[in-house]
Each structure stands twice: as structure tokens, then as C-alpha cells.
Amino acid sequence: MKVFYSEKHLHHVQGEVYEKGTWRAGRDVPERVACLLNAACRLGFDPVEVRELQQAPAASVHTSQYMTFLETAYAAWGRVDATGERVIPSSFPIRQKAASYPDSIVGRAGYHLQDQLSPIGEHTWTAALAAASVAWSAAAHLVKTKEPTYALCRPSGHHASSDKAGGATYLNNAAIAAQCLRQRYSRVALLDIDVHHGNGSQEIFYQRSDVLFISIHRDPADYFPYFSGYACEQGEGDGLGFTVNLPLPAGSDDTTFTSALEEAISQINAFQPGALVVSLGFDGYREDPAGGFDLSSDAFYQAGQQIRSLGLPVVFVQEGGYALEYLGDLLTCFFNGYGFRDIYGCRDSRGAAHG
Ligand SMILES: [Zn+2]
Questions:
Q1: In this protein, which residues make up the domain named Histone deacetylase (predicted)?
Q2: Does 159 qualify as catalytic in the annotation?
Q3: Is the pLDDT of residue 352 over 60?
Q4: What's the gap between Cα 79 and its chain centre?
Q5: Could you tell me the distance, in angstroms and rounded to a whole number, from the CA of residue 92 to the centre of ligand 1?
Q6: In terms of Cα–Cα distance, which of 347, 352, 338, 259 is closest to 1?
Q7: What does the pLDDT look like over 14-27, one tens digit per residue?
Q8: Distance 234 CA to ligand 1 centre (A)
Q9: What pLDDT sits at residue 348?
Q10: Domain spanning 2-14+30-51+124-354: which superfamily?
Q11: How far is the CA of 275 from the centre of ligand 1 (A)?
């Protein structure tokens, strides 16, 4: 399998973020990519560095106004007195259906950044554009060859809607991959197994019937992103019935997760897509600082097997996963389950081997 990646993420620094009334270190550190890429190479994956940055893939799911904002925000921010080093919003158009678009970069930051977890630094736009190009390249490879591919994206993408960043994500890599697959396949499924709801992906496809969005995540009633990911959200207009949310209780274990994924697999089978995008998050792991689920590495092995059972051409797009010490093993377990073997087997936090 080819693993697409870019070195351009390295200078993107999430830095400190503001959450629950306090500043804390952001979890999206560059070392995540090294952990995952090393594990992919041990599995025998063929690394492909994407060097050319293209705007067209991102433009397939994002507004030009939003992309211009992301591209120019950092420079504009620096021209305003009394602003810090990174673009971090402090004023939001909360629940205003027809919010006007301000001239001020401070206002625009609140318009396009839905939280204070997603600062824009000097290199954020380049990194986001590179991640989008990675996702598009992986999907284009599948379109050409039908071979499964792995897009090792950083920053992740699934919280980004057509015109808003959030949850440390800026351009929606998985949606971009799905949009690319639509060139060849009339129906595409997007399965999101990150512990957080993929609210951006949902919003992008909410009114469409050609992309089934299905997400398993911790119940947002008391968890990020709070405002979406509820079972009652099922799409609207042409898209009614093509969004499926399977929220699970805090601390859900392997059995609960695996049976929710079985339900998702059966709904994907019923949809009869030509291809699949998987938003692959490892932050449901029990040692992950995201603290959402209580999954062992075996759940990811099982998930690989379950997704394999669909027999679909698939693009795996990297989303969250922040337990650096375990990330490589989790990737290995997942792809062992999917059918790739390495010489190490896989281990969970208690040291038990699987596969
Ligand atoms: Zn996540």
C-alpha cells in the first residue's frame, strides 16, 4: 500500500490552546507523523512524499472566501495592534443566521474559527494545503489503480466545514478525498471512527445523497464538538437519511465500539457505494489524552478486519490520535486487522500481542 505524506506540516505549530477556561498545550504535535510513518514503513508500505501544493482539491469542498482567509489571516493579524503571535478568535457570530462579514481580521477570525483550539500560525496555511494535497493524491491514486491508500495528513481535517476551522483542523482532508473519488464512483461512503464527531464532514455532505457520512464517536452531550453528532441529525433535503450518527457513552469499551462499527458496516453495505473513505482516528484508545473511550488496541485490529469485510476500494485518511507512545502500534494493529502483516505483531498498553 502507498502511504502519501508531506514534510510541509513540520513547521505548523498548534501551540497552546484555550479550553475549559484555561490554556493547555495543543496535542497535535509534529512527532505524530513520524510515529505513524515509521510504523507504516515497518508494515512495508511504500512512502510517497507529496511536494506539489494545489488549491483545487481544497476548493472542491471549501469556499473561496474561507480559503483566502486562511491564506492571508496570519499576515493581516500581524498588522493589527495588540494581537498575539497566532490568530486566535475572541469574538464569535454565535447563532446569528445571517452574520455579516466584517473587514476586521479580528472579526474574521471569529467568523471562520469556531473555537480557540485552532490557531493560525505562520505556517498553518501551507501545512493545511499540504495535508489536503496529500488526501487528494491518495484518492487520485485509488481512482487510477483501485488500490487502497493511506493519506497521512497533519493537520487533520474532519472538524473543518466548508467555511470554518475547528478542533485543530482547517481543510477537510477526508471530504476532499471523498470528492475526488466521486470523479469515478457515483456513490461514496465516508466512515469516521475518530473519537470525536466529524462535524465538518457532516456539514459538507449534509444535503447530499451521493456521499453517505457515518460516524462513531463519543456522545457530544458532554464532549467536543458539543453541538453536533447527535443521533437525530440524519441529513436534510436530498441528503435526508444519508448522515448517520452513532454516538456512544463516555468510556465505551471494545465490545460497544465493535458492535457500533458492525452497525455502520451494515449501513454502508446497504448504501452500495463504489468506494470508501475512512476518517481514521486513534484517539479512542484508552491511553489517549482525549479521554473519550476505553478501547484497547484489539478494537483497532477488529476495526481493520471489519472494514476489510466491506471489500471496497478505500482511502484511509489520518485524523486524531495523540498518545505518541502508542500511535505506531495502533496503526500497526489496525492494518494488521486489515490484512497487512509486519514482523513485530501488535501490542496494546498491557503488552499483550495480537495478530
Ligand atoms: Zn479526534
A1: 30-334
A2: yes
A3: no
A4: 32
A5: 23
A6: 338
A7: 999 999 899 999 99
A8: 21
A9: 52
A10: Histone deacetylase domain (3.40.800.20)
A11: 23
